[in-house]
Amino acid sequence: MGSSAGSGNSYDYSFKILLIGDSGVGKSSLLVSFISSHVDDLAPTIGVDFKIKHLTVGGKKLKLTIWDTAGQERFRTLTSSYYRGAQGIILVYDVTRRETFANLADVWAKEVDLYSTNQDCIKMLVGNKVDKETERMVTREEGIAFAQEYGCLFLECSAKTRANVEKCFEELALKILEVPSLLEEGSATVKRNILKQKPEYHASPGGGCCS
């Protein structure tokens, strides 16, 4: 497996993946578990953080830029730019905390509808913390039902034991690869052309009071 950091632009497609869900459901832990081989207790994410992971799925070399967001309300101002251009969205809840599951329907799914710029974007529902089976409050069946209603893929996993963590991202990537419009957006050549364009705005030199 192993991803070489020095591989630079040698990928076929680059996809933007979002992790959303309540604070404390384990979004950052999932990400760290996927990227590296150990998960320590992580401090809550402040604002937005992202990590890059190169992997090969379905014979294609992919560069995944995975955005992790703070679940807290006060960071919600970033929202629209955060969702813009995402090819995949992972909705995470904690199987031991029912409210984190309820909030996916009440808060997060609505937000995806509101802000997601890609109609074809692939959504995946992930129930985390299955290592705490004795404390489980949300059944697997409920997860499956939610996923069917909202048109999501579904997996349960444990960031702690790393069970199913890679599978979450790999299944999501495989599904994105099946959608022509998302493939086109993620193609390496398109991405490089966009980067060559000028930035949209320039701060006025001198920073005078009158703009």
From TrEMBL:
Location of the protein in the cell: Cell membrane
NCBIfam families documented for this protein: small_GTP
Protein species of origin: Elaeis guineensis var. tenera (Oil palm)
Keywords: Cell membrane, GTP-binding, Lipoprotein, Membrane, Nucleotide-binding, Protein transport, Transport
Topology in the lipid bilayer: Lipid-anchor
GO cellular component: plasma membrane
Lineage: Eukaryota, Viridiplantae, Streptophyta, Embryophyta, Tracheophyta
Gene from which the chain derives: LOC105043174
BP terms from Gene Ontology: protein transport
InterPro entries found in the cross-reference section: P-loop_NTPase (IPR027417), Rab (IPR050227), Small_GTP-bd (IPR005225), Small_GTPase (IPR001806)
Name of this chain's protein: Ras-related protein RABC2a isoform X1
Protein family per UniProt: Belongs to the small GTPase superfamily. Rab family.
Gene Ontology molecular function terms on file: GTP binding; GTPase activity
SMART domains: ARF, RAB, RAN, RAS, RHO
Physiological role: Intracellular vesicle trafficking and protein transport.
Any Pfam family the entry gives: Ras
